[in-house]
Design brief:
Chain lengths: 207, 182
Amino acid sequence: MRPEEVRELLPLYALGALNPEERARLEAALSRYPELWAEARALQETAADLASLVPPAPVPPGLEEKVMARLRPPRRHGLPVWLVRAAAVLLLLGLGYTGGWSALWLLALRDPQAQVVTLASPKGEVVGRVILRRDRAALVLLNRWPPQGQVFQAWGLAQGSPLPLPTFRTPIKSLRLPPEAQALAVSLEPPGGSPAPTTLLGLPPAP
Amino acid sequence: MSLEAFSDEALLALVARGEEAALQQLFRRYAGAFLGLARRMGLDSASGEDVVQEAFSKVWQNANAFDPRRASARAWLLAIAHHTAVDHIRRLEARPKPLEDEEAEAFDLPGAGLDEEGQLNRIRLKQALAQLSEEEREVIEVLFYQGYAHQEAALKLGLPLGTLKTRARRALARLKGVLREA
């Protein structure tokens, strides 16, 4: 879609008058033409006024609970994609490592007290997950390798300064969380690690 | 920390990180507006609730696609609700009859959040729409509040598609002027 075609459709887009396929095509095209963003933004603001000046309706009791429940599909309907991938990696590594190691981590996931924590960059991009067993053994699973010349380093998050934990070079690492640490983070460091984090890579959600 | 003081933009950034409490806060800010819009577009209470549920699921899934350079969080959220309502209406076999402004007053019950501000907003919107020509108002009504796709709307109004596009652009430009100076 050329910029002039995108521009011509912007009012219809703002008014919701495109069908879903046209809407998706326009959104994809618009992302390529930053010169049109100011105009798109202005039209969207006016359309938002048309929506927001309509008087609100009372929210029926129970609707909030229904909305929140939809965010968490029941686990019995299959494992999440990331977990299936993690399991595949564990099984693969298990073949060349120790037979029982990967199986033990998979079994740990059946324990309802085992925690699975998403790690996200300071900008909000998901970079991996941590499985934390009740005996404070932790398995870090990242979705990338470290840049050349750098290593990952784990950190125990406690009151005060982060506690330096082992460095590692692969996207998967098992370690033990010190008793005083409440959560785990990951940073990028020069080889050998650092006493304080240099570039934060993955943080747990805010408590 | 309470999320009540967070801006919509900050809440969306937290939603993108999977913070359910941030989505809950957005629900508390916007669910009434989403329901009011669905109602204005003629959807009954059950369909309105479906729209709200679907819209917040989309917010949850797509928050990482929100780009503050391209839209404010408010406009992005309301666009998701509007698109969801529009798609819902187009799936129905019989189009619902949208409420006219006077009928909208019937559900503006007294209560928290639905008092003077709602009344003032309705007057402001009515006055802004009154500044448009009859033809421009009709385009806004058919496209935005009745949810017709542009090809269908052109047929319904007996207009060439190019004329519909021109009127839509002109109507939005004029509304922008009127609403910003009000």
